[in-house]
Amino acid sequence: MATIDQFDFAGKKAIVRVDFNVPLDENGQITDDTRIRGAIPTLKRVLEGGGALILMSHMGKPKGKVNPKLSLAQITEAVGKALGTNVQFAPDCAKAKEQADALKPGDVLLLENLRFYPEEEGKPVGIEKEDPAYEEAKKAMKASQKEFAKTLASYADCYIMDAFGTAHRKHASTAVIDEYFDKDHRMLGYLMEKEVNAVNAVLNNIQRPFTAIMGGSKVSTKIGIIENLLGKVDNLILCGGMTYTFAKAMGGKIGNSICEDDKLDVALAVIEKAKENNVNLVLGTDCIAADAFSNDANTQVCMANDIPDGWQGLDAGPETQKAFAEAIESAKTILWNGPAGVFEFDKFIGGSKAIADAIAKATANGAFSLIGGGDSVACINKFGMADQVSYISTGGGALLEAIEGKELPGIAAMA
Ligand code: AMP
């Protein structure tokens, strides 16, 4: 594999897989530009080396169909601002050859959302897995995925993978396009390098105590990493909506709180495994309950296992926040993924703020803190505390899979 430091970009066109899947508000304004900023060092290296850039990314989940709300046209100006240059836009990522051919050194072309084409993800559309024709459709889709990747590759002389946030996906632009560049013309970008180093800092050199904080809405989407972490950490804080699945599993009364009734046994198994592994499992005791899922709701502090009918737990209570802070402040390695409450509403941000404050304190005392996943990163940025933690990852799922020790297809394909 070539390296971005050594490659001579003079007069060359580089197609770069970036992760510009940034959150937008209802007016199409970017609410957190961490991912755009993360890609800039790689992009500047190409431009300063005398090359031209073709940028490709996905945004959201358009499921293989054009969806103007997920158009990357909305972020062209922001990318230009971050790069300090004008950015051209190609409204159809699979029909951009002419625009790509016309690029001169220093030019930048952003392609439209790759996922407007089902070929990007490579999953057959409009056919269920149970359908007898599914296997045939899958084969046909794999073939057109290769064609799609080949088209993208035809725009450029070299390929750079710098989309850590999607490196755990085997998609056309992350792990198929590589085939169309030889080893001397494909490379990982600076962001990938930085992210992999941050993961290694956690995995290969764990300073104890190691505290992981897993939040968010559901147990089901995090159970893989939770089980994995139970073999690695000293303290495991489980917070957010997950709290109530655990509370119910232990016989608690949770009112209208979010709960996965089919995961109660999974929750009990996590509690058991934590005991077996001598992991200090920290679950919410009290909570801020609300009489509606709204920022205007009435609230009260109550026990997470004794929530009145008609009320729902939307944030960690004061006693819980204190317990979280204790498990974090004493740590020397910290991993945080997922908010402790419905942080989108200012009324329910206290639990996440308590976590962020404790992480900042521990980091100031020499701990290594790694924050990943869109929502926790959005929290840290909302609190203006990005410079008080060790590393903010642009990856959510990719970060967790890397921490689990899984090989990421976006890296493996480069070898
Ligand atoms: P996830 O996508 O699973 O990481 O979950 C992130 C989402 O969890 C955020 O949008 C939060 O608003 C939501 N969340 C956190 N705590 C709760 C809660 N107690 N009830 C409902 N949703 C929650």
Q: What attributes characterize this protein structure?
A:
single chain; 415 residues; alpha/beta; Rossmann fold; 2 domains; 6-stranded parallel β-sheet; 15 helices; 35% helix; 15% strand; globular; binds adenosine monophosphate
Architecture overview:
This protein has a six-stranded parallel sheet with strand order 3-4-2-1-5-6. The relative contact order is 0.12. The chain is an alpha/beta fold and 415 residues long. The radius of gyration is 23 Å and the shape is globular. The protein is 35% helix and 15% strand. It has two domains: 2-189, Rossmann fold; 206-402, Phosphoglycerate kinase, N-terminal domain (Rossmann fold, 3-Layer(aba) Sandwich). The protein contains 15 helices and 15 strands. The structure holds adenosine monophosphate (AMP). Adenosine monophosphate binds at residues 216-218, 221, 240-241, 258, 313-314, 338-339, 341-342, 344, 375.
Q: Which structural category do the helix and sheet elements fall into?
A: alpha/beta
CATH level 3 topology of the largest domain = Rossmann fold
* Count of beta strands: 15
* Cα end-to-end separation: 6 Å
Oligomeric state of the chains? single chain
Q: How much helix is in the residues?
A: 25-40%
What is the averaged pLDDT score?
A: 96
3D shape: globular
- What is the domain tally? 2
- Helical stretch count? 15
At a glance:
This protein has 415 residues and is an alpha/beta fold. 35% of the residues lie in helices and 15% in strands.
Write the layout of secondary structure elements.
Elements: E1 13-17, H1 34-48, E2 52-56, H2 76-83, E3 88-90, H3 97-101, E4 108-111, H4 118-121, H5 134-153, E5 158-161, H6 172-176, E6 186-188, H7 190-203, E7 210-214, H8 223-229, E8 235-238, H9 242-249, H10 264-276, E9 280-283, E10 286-290, E11 299-303, E12 312-316, H11 318-329, E13 333-337, H12 350-364, E14 368-371, H13 374-382, E15 391-392, H14 397-403, H15 409-412
Parallel strand pairs: 1-2, 1-5, 2-4, 3-4, 5-6, 7-8, 7-13, 8-9, 13-14, 14-15
Antiparallel strand pairs: 10-11, 10-12
Helix pairs in contact: 1-2, 9-10, 11-12
Bound molecules: adenosine monophosphate.
